[in-house]
Structure formats: structure tokens, C-alpha cells
């Protein structure tokens, strides 16, 4: 069921404002706190009847669901994983409540802190000096498509048990007269124990590349809020399409990596270590479902999809950028001609020197 969040003063739309961490009416500018919204219905908001169900359709690109906008009556078509979207005609935000309830209801949400204007400026700074990026990609009308999206994640907690044994070398150098002496002392190295790892994030959406989501970490989970639909207002949100069980192997590898980091830190005095035994296992694993804030820009150039992502909390970013082959060719041609002219001038100078 789609729903929108309404102002208690004028009935206008309320949008979450990251800079204020408040909800602001787009019509009368009245600000609302989370406590102000506590009495609002969780389902149908004031003045918004919504619809009971959407029209589901299978296409070559996947399954889509079509709803009717409760404001203008236009059809809102989205994927079946979308929880929050916008009407393309009246631009009103619409929350698909069925996608954030029941088994799909998140436990927590990390609110946006970076506003769109700042995200755009940082993205433009990211593009500076990248002369081969296509003009269409760096144009303002394309950058304006940067969208705040709540990406679904599983957050895993667990205990990692480790047992490592091997040999470690300490190499020292000294000098005796004209001789440089290298000494290698070998020691038996044993490390064993357990560590508790909390809030290991694993991207639960097949639409967003795991390596991109990993690269914009870390998130500060001290700001996690119990899930509340008003935080979605003004943003797009997705629900998970990869289950906890599907994501657990990645989480387990990341947990083991945390144990490795601790082991390696304790071995820093050795110049080299040869591991003869390295066992790790996990226990007491629990998971929570959370939505995390990401600014995303998808662009399609020369039949390839490019994605730019920015942490909506910290501003850390990563993106793969398209290359305009025409720009590369023109730049190469200019360099070639410039080097040709330079060679000709050097040749002329040498001939003049021979005459003198």
C-alpha cells in the first residue's frame, strides 16, 4: 500500500532533511521531530487512501509492480523490491508499505546526513581533472539524477574462534669491519583465542555491486535508529532480494578477516611469518536487517552500465567512470602533432647550428 507523510499544519508533504535531522513541510516549512510523528498512523497517512495492491507484470528486465498515485492518479511503476519511490508526474514521494512490513520490515535504519547539494558538489570534485569522461556524463542534467537510496543490508554479529600456529622470522643487520652481517632468528609462533565482531554489513540487494558497497564503508552504526517509515520520506528505498542465508558466507569471510587483522597486528615484530595452521570458526551468529544511506548515480554509456556510489553518512565515494574514446583519440592526435612540431623545430635548430 503506498503512503505519504503529511504535515500536521497544512497537509503538505513532509520530507526528511538530513542537515537538520528533522522532517520539513515542503509547503509551509513547518519542522517536525520524530516525537511529533509518533502519533501518525503507520499505514495510510492523513488524506492518502493509497491502494490495496499493485498490478504485477513480468518483463524481460524483471518483475514490475504498478500502483496509482493517490495525488494525481498517475500510474507509478517500479520493481517489486522497491519500498519507496516518487511519482514521475507530480514528484510526490510514495512509500510502498507492503515492502516494509511483515518479513520485509527492517529492524533498523541509518538516516542520511549528507544533503543532495553537498553530494553533487563532491561528485563534481570527483570528476575534476578526468578529461576523458564523456560530456553527457559530467553534464549538470545527468549529475542531477544523483538519487538518495536506502540500500538493504544484513548486519551480522558473531564470535570468531581462531587457532594459528607457525614460524616467524626476525631479521637483524650488523656490521663487523668491512662485513655486513645478516642474522635471522626463527621463533615458534602461536595465536589462539576468540573475538566478538559486531555489525558486519553485507549488501542484501543484487542490484548494487558488492565491491562498490564494501568500498564506501565504514558506516557509523552508533547512529542506527529503530526502523520508522518517516525516515524514508524524500528518498528511494529498496527491500532485500538476497536472504540472510545467501549473505552469510560473505559475512563469515569478513568476520574471519577481522580475526586476521588482529592476528597480523600481534605479529608486527616479525619480518615474515609462515603459517602452518590457521583454523577459524564462528559461533553465536545473529543478524539484523537494516537500511543504509547511499547516494547513487547510474549512467548508461555505449551499451555499458556505470555506477557511482557515495556513503550518505560520511561522503566516502567510489565510481567506475566511462571513457569517451573520441576524446582519447583527439587528445592523442594533439600530442602527436605537438611532438611532431617539436621534432621539426629541433631538426631546424640543428641544421642552423651546422651552418654557423
Task: Itemize the secondary structure elements and their pairings.
Elements: E1 2-3, E2 14-17, E3 22-25, E4 31-32, E5 55-59, E6 62-68, E7 75-79, E8 82-86, E9 93-96, E10 108-109, H1 116-127, H2 135-138, H3 140-143, E11 147-176, E12 179-203, H4 210-215, E13 225-226, E14 236-238, H5 244-266, E15 272-301, E16 304-311, E17 317-319, H6 325-355
Parallel strand pairs: 10-15, 11-14
Antiparallel strand pairs: 1-9, 2-3, 3-4, 5-6, 6-7, 8-9, 8-14, 10-13, 11-12, 11-15, 15-16, 16-17
Order of helical and strand elements = EEEEEEEEEEHHHEEHEEHEEEH
Q: What is the helix tally?
A: 6
Question: Distance between the terminal alpha carbons, to the nearest Å?
Answer: 91 Å
Mean pLDDT: 79
Give the overall shape, derived from the CA principal axes.
globular
What proportion of the residues is helical, as a percent range? 10-25%
Radius of gyration: 28 Å
Query: In percent terms, what proportion of residues is strand?
Result: 35-45%
**Tally of discrete structural domains:** 2
How is the biggest beta sheet arranged? 11 strands, mixed
Spans of at least 5 consecutive residues whose pLDDT stays below 50 are 41-53
Helix/strand/pairing category: alpha+beta
**Oligomerization category of the chains in this entry:** single chain
Count of beta strands? 17
Amino acid at each position: 500500500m503506498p503512503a505519504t507523510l503529511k504535515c500536521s499544519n497544512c497537509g503538505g508533504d513532509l520530507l526528511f532533511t538530513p542537515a537538520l535531522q528533522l522532517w520539513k513541510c515542503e509547503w509551509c516549512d513547518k519542522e517536525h521531530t520524530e516525537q511529533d510523528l509518533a502519533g501518525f498512523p503507520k499505514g495510510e497517512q492523513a488524506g492518502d487512501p493509497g491502494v490495496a495492491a499493485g498490478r504485477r507484470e513480468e518483463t524481460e528486465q524483471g518483475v514490475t509492480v504498478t500502483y496509482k498515485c493517490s495525488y494525481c492518479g498517475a500510474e507509478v511503476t517500479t520493481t517489486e523490491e522497491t519500498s519507496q519511490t516518487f511519482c514521475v508526474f507530480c514528484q510526490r514521494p510514495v512509500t510502498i508499505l507492503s515492502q516494509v512490513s511483515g518479513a520485509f520490515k527492517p529492524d533498523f535504519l541509518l538516516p542520511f546526513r549528507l544533503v543532495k547539494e553537498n553530494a553533487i558538489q563532491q561528485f563534481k570534485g570527483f570528476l575534476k581533472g578526468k578529461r576523458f569522461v564523456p560530456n553527457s556524463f559530467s553534464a549538470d542534467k545527468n549529475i542531477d539524477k544523483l538519487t538518495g537510496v536506502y540500500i538493504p543490508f544484513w548486519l551480522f554479529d558473531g564470535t570468531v574462534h581462531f587457532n594459528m600456529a607457525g614460524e616467524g622470522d626476525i631479521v637483524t643487520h650488523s656490521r663487523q669491519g668491512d662485513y655486513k652481517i645478516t642474522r635471522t632468528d626463527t621463533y615458534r609462533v602461536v595465536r589462539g583465542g576468540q573475538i566478538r565482531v559486531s555489525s558486519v554489513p553485507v549488501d542484501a540487494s543484487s542490484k548494487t555491486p558488492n565491491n562498490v558497497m564494501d568500498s564506501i564503508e565504514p558506516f557509523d552504526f552508533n547512529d542506527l535508529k529503530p526502523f520508522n517509515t518517516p525516515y524514508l520520506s524524500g528518498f528511494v528505498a529498496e527491500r532485500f532480494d538476497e536472504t540472510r542465508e545467501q549473505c552469510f558466507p560473505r559475512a563469515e569471510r569478513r568476520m574471519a578477516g577481522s580475526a586476521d587483522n588482529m592476528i597480523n597486528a600481534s605479529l608486527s615484530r616479525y619480518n615474515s611469518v609462515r603459517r602452518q595452521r590457521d583454523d577459524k570458526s564462528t559461533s553465536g551468529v545473529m543478524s539484523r536487517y537494516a537500511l543504509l544511506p547511499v547516494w547513487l548515480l547510474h549512467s548508461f554509456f555505449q551499451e555499458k552500465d556505470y555506477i557511482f556510489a557515495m556513503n550518505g553518512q560520511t561522503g566516502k565515494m567510489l565510481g567506475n567512470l566511462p571513457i569517451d574514446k573520441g576524446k582519447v583519440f583527439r587528445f592523442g592526435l594533439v600530442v602527436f602533432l605537438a611532438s611532431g612540431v617539436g621534432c621539426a623545430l629541433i631538426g631546424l635548430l640543428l641544421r642552423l647550428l651546422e651552418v654557423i
